[in-house]
Each structure stands twice: as C-alpha cells, then as structure tokens.
Amino acid sequence: MLCKKDNKAPKLLRKTHAELFPDFSGNIKLCCQFGEIHSDSTIIWTKDSKLLARVHRSAKDDLPVSLAIVQAGKKDQGLYHCCLKNIYGKATSEFNLTSEVLEHLSSLQDVEEISEREEEREKQREEGGGGGGKEEEEEEEEEEEEEEEEEEEEEEEEEEEEEEEEEEEEEEEEEET
Q: Which residue windows does the record flag with biased composition (Basic and acidic residues) (predicted)?
C-alpha cells in the first residue's frame, strides 16, 4: 500500500547534463530538473561527496537547477550529485565529469565559435556591413586564391617527383642493358 508521502515525493524530470556557457568563456554548467515539488525543498550539490552548494526552493518551483563551474578543467573532474529533499522524500541525479566530457565540450565550443563568426559575417553581408562586407569578401577571395596556388604548387611538386622517378627508372633500365 502506498502512503501519501510516497505519492508526493519529488521526481527527477531531467538527468544532470553538462552545458557550455554561450560566451565561450570555458565555463560550463551542470543542469538537472525536478518535478512534483509539493513543499519547500532544499537542493544540495556535491562533488565526490563534498558539499558545494545548498539552495532553497519553494513548492511548485520546477525550473531547472544548475551549478556553474568556472574555467572547467582537470581539477573539476569528479562525481557530482544533485539532490532535492523535502518532507515528502528526495530525488537525486548524478553526473561524472571526466576528461572525455571536458574534451567533448571544448570541441563543441570550437565549432560554436566558428559558427558564430560565420553567422556574423553573413549578417554583415546582408546588412551591407558598413563597408566591412567588401573587405571581408576580398579577404575570402584572397584566401581562396592562396589555397588554389598552394594546391597547384603541390600538384607541380608531385609531377616533378613522378618525372624524376621515371627518369631514374629509365636510367636503371639503360644501365641493365
């Protein structure tokens, strides 16, 4: 038989996950979300069983909760727990912040930075860019020309190497005969 306490216990709606701050600062946040919060509650964040933060929440406040990690790095690796407790019970979520997770977030940040720069360039082109758009187009054209020249040089070098190899083979054949 279920008692009233069990029916009103908080529930985990979304497990803890890591997100990047949008400002490319190297900061990350761990986020999770609880629901069915029928009384005032306390949210406790720990890392490797050490208390990091204690926050009070009002009943019915089911907004996501987060923990900011400034300049996340090796020192921040560990097992994080987020626990919401109230008179009806508790709900807990954990997240293991590993070097692999940090590397993945760092690579996402690099991709997002590039995307943001491209979006900014596109926006400037659409707006006319106050004269800056033409300069950027010229820079892009120059970059493309440089890439084409490099490719041509590489092709020429490959052709020269092939010709030298053919000449060496011909010389070896002549010496054999």
A: 118-128
- Distance from chain centroid for Cα 122: 23
Q: How far is CA 65 from CA 27, 61, 144, in A?
A: 16, 10, 47
41-47 vs 50-57, strand pairing mode: antiparallel
List beta partners, residue 83. 44, 92
pLDDT tens track for 30-79: 999 999 999 999 999 999 999 999 999 999 999 999 999 999 999 999 99
Q: Is 33 helix (H, G, I), strand (E, B) or coil?
A: strand
Phi, psi of 64 (to 5 degrees): -60, 150
- Contact assessment for residue 54 and residue 120, using Cβ atoms and an 8 Å cutoff: no
DSSP state of 25: S
For residue 118, the Cα-to-chain-centroid distance in whole angstroms is: 17
- Phi first, then psi: give them for residue 28, nearest 5 degrees: -130, 165
